[in-house]
Amino acid sequence: MSLFICPVCRKELFEVDKSLKCVNGHSFDKSSAGDVFLLRTSKGIHGDSREMVRARHDFLERGFYAPLRDSLSRLAVECVGEGHVNYLDAGCGTGYYTEGVARALMERGETSVVGIDISKDAVKTSAKRLKTSELATASVYDLPIADNTIDIITNVFSPMAETEFARVMKSGSTLLYVVPASRHLYSMKSVLYENPYENEEGAVEYDGFKLMGSQPVDSSATLSGEELSSLFAMTPYFWTTSKDGAERLSALDSLKVEFSFIIYIYKRI
Ligand SMILES: C[S@@+](CC[C@H](N)C(=O)[O-])C[C@H]1O[C@@H](n2cnc3c(N)ncnc32)[C@H](O)[C@@H]1O
Ligand SMILES: [Zn+2]
Questions:
Q1: How far away, in angstroms, is 233 Cα from ligand 1 center?
Q2: Closest to 84 in 3D by CA, of 147, 151, 18
Q3: Is the pLDDT of residue 44 over 80?
Q4: Which domains occur in the chain, in start order?
């Protein structure tokens, strides 16, 4: 049986001949990469474009965010109990963090892994690297997952859908929510903008959750011009930067950039 449920009638889904099917005859074909499309409507919503997915993949594979992946994986193992674990990466993107956390959880014990993202291109990239996990194109605001089934969620820079997360999470389960810290990418922003701003920081309380703590993850690296371009193309700044700002960045041969994140640890009450 799949951890996904039918997005139409909410019944369980079973794998039959490379499709997921429910008892009411709704059927969802798996792609050759193994992912499945479970969005009820794709009208008016879109996630990362193919170009952004490629830039994110290129940049992440160079390992600059490995400290975040390692901290997230360590925390995930510390937060789950013994026995079988159902793990969801909500807004999984290219699956970079999903893979690290899944590997750490599997080394600990039996684990089922599901990843969802609203970008079909991102989900396909995830499916290619996560052969034993279930991947679906779906929205965090309408998860194709039954109530009270998930032991741990990771959400890395993706939209926070606390009501849906609370619905699918078991009581006592964990949400690891990653956001950029105030100085994240500040030197790059200083090149792009005349008046760069720091990201706002501060923990938020969500209904149905208790904030247990937070962990900063900081590192820095000197990036080549090519690495800077990949980084720029995977950020929202790509869409909001003036031509002048973008040209200033592309003229650089290298730049020291700081990577600065906060992992918030929430327990489902
Ligand atoms: C900044 S990216 C982070 C991706 C991944 N967690 C990572 O850090 O590599 C944000 C992701 O959220 C996805 N996204 C945006 N809106 C979404 C929604 N409503 N439901 C699910 N995913 C969404 C985008 O497609 C994108 O892959
Ligand atoms: Zn159905």
A1: 15
A2: 151
A3: no
A4: 1-30 (no CATH), 31-268 (3.40.50.150)
